[in-house]
Every structure is written in structure tokens, then in C-alpha cells.
Amino acid sequence: MLQKRLMWLASALLALSGCAILGVSHYDDLFGPEQPRQRVVDYRQGGAQYLQQVKPILDNRCVVCHGCYDAPCQLKLSSPQGVERGLSKELVYDGTRILATPPTRLLFDATTTAQWRDKGFTPVLNERVQTSYANLQGSVMYHSLRLKQRTAFPVQSVLGEEYDFSLDRQQTCPTMDEYEQYAKTNPHAGMPYGLPALTSEEYAQLQSWLEQGALMGEVPAPKTSVISQVNKWEAFLNQSGNKHQLAARYIYEHWYLANIYFSDHSHSDFFKLVRSKTPPGEPIELIATVRPFDDPKVSRVYYRLMHERSTILSKTHLPLALSDKKMARLYAQFIDSDYQVSELPGYAPKLAANPFKTFAAIPVKSRYQFMLDEAELIVKGFIKGPVCRGQIALNVINDHFWVTFVDPEKNASPAVEALLIAHDDDLLLPAAEQSNALPLSSWAKYAKHQSDYLEAKTRLSEEIFNRGGKLDLNLIWQGDGHNPNAALTIFRHFNSATVVKGLVGQQPKTAWVLDYALFERIHYLLVAGFDVYGNIGHQLITRLYMDFLRLEGEQNFLNLLPQSHRQAIKQHWYRNSHLSLSEFINRKSLLGAPSHIQYHSHDPQRELYDKLTAYLTPVLHTEYDYMSVPDTLKTLNHLPIEAINTLPQVTFILANDELGELKGYTLLRHNAHFNISSLLNEAGQRAYKEDYVTLLPGFVGDYPEAIWYLPNQAHITAFSDGLKRVSDEASYQALKAQFGIRRTHPQFWQYSDLLHQIAQHARGVEFGLFDYNRLENR
Questions:
Q1: How many CA atoms lie within 13 A of 654 on its CB side?
Q2: Which of 46, 204, 316, 515 could form a disulfide with 215 if both were Cys (CB 3.0 to 4.6 A apart)?
Q3: What pLDDT does residue 659 have?
């Protein structure tokens, strides 16, 4: 009996393998073997059609889901190189991998389509014989669009369980040989997935483009005036001499994620600061390392500005303006400062991952002022960088908190510099372990380092503040009287996050005060040192180490409060928590020195927030002032808890004001927690009755989960009143049917275009396309 079963199984496997072979042979027999094609052509040879007629459709209908790291199947349609690269079945975000996986960064980790095929990527375009018929029948993209066109799509209703919108959903990523069977099994899975089909005109345009061979053109090269700016900045960053080279390395390691533009020229041209094997004047030859401080394996690194030709996405857009004034500032900070660099540091992991050793020659004040000048940009790096995707990566921070900074004049004293030099080994970061780490042994080591550093830091602080130094608001940086980066607000939206300038929204549960060493470590932990392709140990240590840094920032804030209240407030922030090692270590950093801030109430934390707001008022950014929204919408800040608990994290509202002008607003839901000590049991620490919402003018967040359209004052009033009465899923869905733009709304794409038009007008250089991967299905 067993033998018969084995024979049957062998026959079945043989038959299945034969079918697979026949499937491959079928396309080979029809259209010949696959062979990557050269599709990027000159503007006059087909590039113009792509840029003018095809790219706008791809951007506004496809890139809104297929844009970057977290695009399904790694399909990045925001550039010709991404279209040609195609699909991968491998996950970028995988918190369980035992070993690090090779990176697959576009432009960096392969430079030709053939190289991407060797890395396992499969085409979405026809790579067999180039005939009109073959270009359609051999294209995954065409069949995906066609499947959507021929399959009925619900109108204004909640989609069924066959649609899976979860971030960790299983990805199929069918090849052309697999697509027929995939379509039979998943008739609902045409593209755009879970959204209305393209219009007949849009579909015909893409069909014609695919039929003709899917030729593509690059966006135009920058104007001569912009190129002259590029040349000037490349000359500045590549001067000879140890001092210039060390300064350029420091600048690069903090700016490499930025989308650089020149403030006195067009904002349509952005550049990435990259490391190249070739000097200015020659074509850029990228140094493709995992981290910006990894060994470049060349005798001389050149820092170059590479034209950014991909579509700009809100979720990865970090704009940075360069100007003559900025260059003069950098000269003052790094070149004119009185210090010597006798020898350039190397790139050994334990050295390069420790900025306090690598850049010890540069004065702390210069480094810290440089970071503060663009504090929002630096924080955006770890808010918008690849580390901040997914709930486990983000449950190390609260949903809403304010951030201020220690004044550089106070933070760069000889005593502080001596502390950092003496304890530079204790400031070593997990990136020293590279991308494959053993979490438990590494964790114990870094816990000991943090404990030793905090003990020394606390001891020095006690000496300073007990011997004449005043623990008061003068410790807080006031933005040099003009810089709005002095105050930031961070919002966490469960599995994404946002940072904006200003002290935005209601007074939050917690706040951070960052000093130089803390700010620098956060950057090298979550941005420069983080590898999204790293193993579970690397990702786990990064998350656990961030516990230390969050607690240290909170502790700096608590030390401004009266001694009598510090511990009680800290205990309220960490209710119901078992004392973790992180909390135990950071408990030692609560100062015994008194605060010299005068308090007059029984709620000193609220008083401190008021005092900070008044102290920073001259530089506070007010674009997102939640009190400036119309009164008819302002009432949404006081929704009943039953209504709040039904809301998603990020809601965009399009509403006409009294003058009939359509404007955008964001309703943010903040999830409250008894504590955020738990790595895996966040739900168990939720304080649902303490959740609250903030309605802000403009758009805050990159991943809208709900969109509402309120064309007149009557709709605004009815919506506001209706949302106050929402108490469960049924009443929420009933309201959504009245005013919501669901995934299934027949005019979804028209409203999407309207949303982006308003955002572009309001955000200016900050604008990028939103991402629809988190749109709710309700």
C-alpha cells in the first residue's frame, strides 16, 4: 500500500514538473527566450511619449502603491530602472530572518537589468521577441491591468475577505509563466489592487505604450545654472587636506538620505549626496556599501551630487536646501574652527560605527550646531528611514511627544567634551556588530556600556548643577533666535510616523530633551547604522537599544521638573510595567540637583509645557497650529472616546472653508499606553480610554488610512455631528458611506488627484506623492 502511494506521489510530481516545463516552453516557443532589452531612449525616439503621457499615469495610479522599500513584490514603478528591474518574491521587511540578506537597492546593488535577473528579479515587461502581440501577451503588467478591466469591481462597498491589505500579507509576485493560473485563483487581484480600475483612456494609453515596446525616457537633465551649483558644492566637499576630508565625511554621513535642492533655483531638481570612486568632472561610479560608513575599499572617497530622477514620494522625501549662506555656515563650523586633523580615521566597523571616535577631532560644538541647524531633517531620517516601517520597529516611541534640545553653548563645555572622550567606548552602537548579530550577548554588552556612561554623565551633571550651574530653561536651545528647528513634534501612527516643526497639538504625555551625544546616537542607531536587510538579532538589538535612548531623552525632560514630582511623573508614564533593564539603568540618571524653574501649581508638567512654549515662541513653527482650524471642525478635537476608538491613525479631510476654498486637514488618532516597555505585547499595554485625537490644518502623515470629502458647510456640520455619534463599526461605516471616499468609490482617482493637487499647493518643496498601502477597507 505504501509503495503504491509513493509511486502515485512520484507520478504526480513528475506530471506537475512536466506542466511547469511545458509552461516555460510555451512562451519560449511562441516568443523566443527571455532577454533584457534597452528601453531607455532619447527624448525624440519615444522618451517624450513616456514622460508626457505614460509617466503621469504610472505616478498617480501605480507609484502610490509601488514606490519604495515596502512596495508589494519590491516593484518600484517610480523610475525606468525600477520598471525594468521588475518583481521579487523576496521580502525586504522580514523580522525573523536568521541571517542578513543581500541588499537590493535600486542603482546601488545592480546596475543592469541582467544583473537584477541574476539576483532573482523577474520582468513585468515582455523580454522575449519584440512584436506588438508578444509585447502584450508576454507582459505581467499588461495582464495585471487587463485582469482588472475585465473583472467587476464593487462600488461604494466594503471589499470582501478575498482582499488582503495587511502589511505582512503573503506575496505571490507571479511571473509570466505563473500568471494564468494566478489569475484563475485570484480574479480580484488585477491592478490597481483593491482600487478602481483605470479609465478606458488611461488603460488604452498604457496598452499602446506596452504594445510599442514600453520605451522610456529619463527626466530632463538639470539646467546649466543648477549644474554650476552642483559643481560648486562638489568642489567644496572634495577639497584636499585631512580637515576638509573629515568634515566632508561627517556631512555626508548625516545628509545622505536628503533630497538636496538649491534654494535659489527650481525645486523640481533634487540630488542625492553619494560616495563615488570618481572625482568631480567624471561620471559618478557609486560606492555601494550597506551603510554610509562601511569601508569604501578605495584610497580616496569623492562626495558627489547625483541627480534624483525617481518620482518624489512623501514617505521618503527629506528636502534640504543648499545656498551660499549654508556653505558659509559649514565653513564656519568645520573649516574655520580651530582644530587639527593629524590622521584620517579608517573604516573598521567598531571605529566607523562610533562617531564619537571617528570624528573626535571635530569640536563637539561644531558637530552639534550642524545637527541642530537641520534638526527636523536629521529626525526625519529615523522617522522616514527604512527602520520605521512596521509596528515592532515603532513601538519604542509614544504616539505623540515634543522634542527640544540642549543649548550647544551649554552642551559643548570642556567638561562635556572630556566626558565624551573618556567614555567613547561606552558610546559604541550596535552597528559595530554589522548585520548579523547575536541579540542576548550583544544586549548585555551594550547595557553595561549604557550604564557606565549614564553613571558618569549623571555624576558630571550633579557636579555642575550643585556648584553654581542652574538647571533651568536657559539650558534649552532657542534656535539662535531664528531657527524653527528648535522645537519638533513626533507623531507615531502605529506602523508609520511623522515629524513636524513646532510644539504641535495638545500637551502630550511625554517629551524629550536631546543633548548632543543622545542626538548623535539616535542617528547612528536608527539611520546610518541600521540595515533593513539585517538579521533578527540586528533588528532586535536596535529596538532594545532605542529603549535606552528614549528613556534618556525623557529623563532629560524630567530633570527640569521639581525634584518632588520627577519620580511620580515617570511612574505614571510607565504604569503597569515590570521594571525592565532599560528602566533600571536609566533610573540612575534622575538628578538630585534642584530645578531653578519657578513652579506655582500642582501640575508642574503642564506648567513646564507652557513655559517651554512661551520660551520658544519667537521661533515656533505654526503651520500646524491645531487651534487655527475652522470652528466647525475644531470640535473634532473633543470627540467622545467611543468615536475616537473607531478611528484609524491618519485621516485626511478635504473641506471647503467659508470662502469656498477647498483645503486639507488631518485628523490624527493617538493611541495611549500604560507604558511602552513591552516589545511584543503592545495591545496588552494599551490605555484605550486615554486615546485622543488632534485635528491639524494641512496634511500630516504619508499614509492616509481614510479620506473624507466635505464640499460645503452643511456637509462639515453633518459630518462633525455624525462623527460625535459614532460608537461602533456599524455606525462608522454608515458615516463613511455618506462622506467617505472609500477604496471602492467610483470617483476614487479623481479625489486622489484633487488630494495631491491641494497637497502640492500647500506643501511646495515638501510635496511628494502619498502612499495608499494603508488605506482602510471599511
A1: 20
A2: 46
A3: 83
Residue entry with cell 486637514: 665
- Residue 538 clears pLDDT 50, i.e. is over it: yes
Q: Which residues contact 581 (CB under 8 A, 6 or more apart)?
A: 447
Termini Cα distance of the chain = 52
State the cell numbers at 250.
561627517
Instruction: State the cell numbers at 86.
Output: 521588475
Cα–Cα distance for residue pair 189/195, rounded to 1 Å: 10
Residue 644 neighbours by CB under 8 Å, 6+ apart? 669, 691, 692, 693
CA distances from 69 to 365, 382, 532, 536 (A): 35, 15, 9, 18
CA distance 672 to 694: 13
CA distance 408 to 339: 18
Q: Which of 180-194, 254-268, 535-549 has the highest mean pLDDT?
A: 180-194
The model's confidence at residue 168, banded by pLDDT at 50, 70 and 90, is confident
**What is the Cα–Cα distance from 692 to 410, expressed in whole angstroms?**
36
pLDDT in tens, 459-485: 999 898 888 788 999 999 999 999 999
The string over 692-703, giving b where at least 16 C-beta atoms fall within 10 Å of a residue's C-beta and e elsewhere, is: bbbbbbbbbbbb
Strand ranges in 267-317 using DSSP code E only, listed in sequence order: 270-276, 302-308
Q: Count CA atoms within 13 Å of residue 758 on its CB side.
A: 20
- The DSSP bridge pattern shows strands 400-405 and 662-670 to be unpaired
Give the C-alpha distances (Å, rounded to integers) separating 50 from 80, 84, 145, 496, 677. 10, 14, 17, 33, 50
pLDDT confidence of residue 419: 93
Give the residue with greater pLDDT, 428 vs 580. 428
C-alpha distance from residue 25 to each of 18, 20, 440, 567 (Å): 10, 9, 50, 72
636 vs 379: CA distance, rounded Å: 29
User: Residue 20: what pLDDT?
Assistant: 38
Q: How many CB atoms lie within 10 A of CB 55?
A: 22
- pLDDT, tens only, 178-200: 999 999 999 999 999 999 999 99
**In 3-state terms, what secondary structure has residue 274?**
strand
pLDDT one-digit tens code per residue, 692-749: 999 999 999 999 999 999 999 999 999 999 999 999 999 999 999 999 999 999 999 9
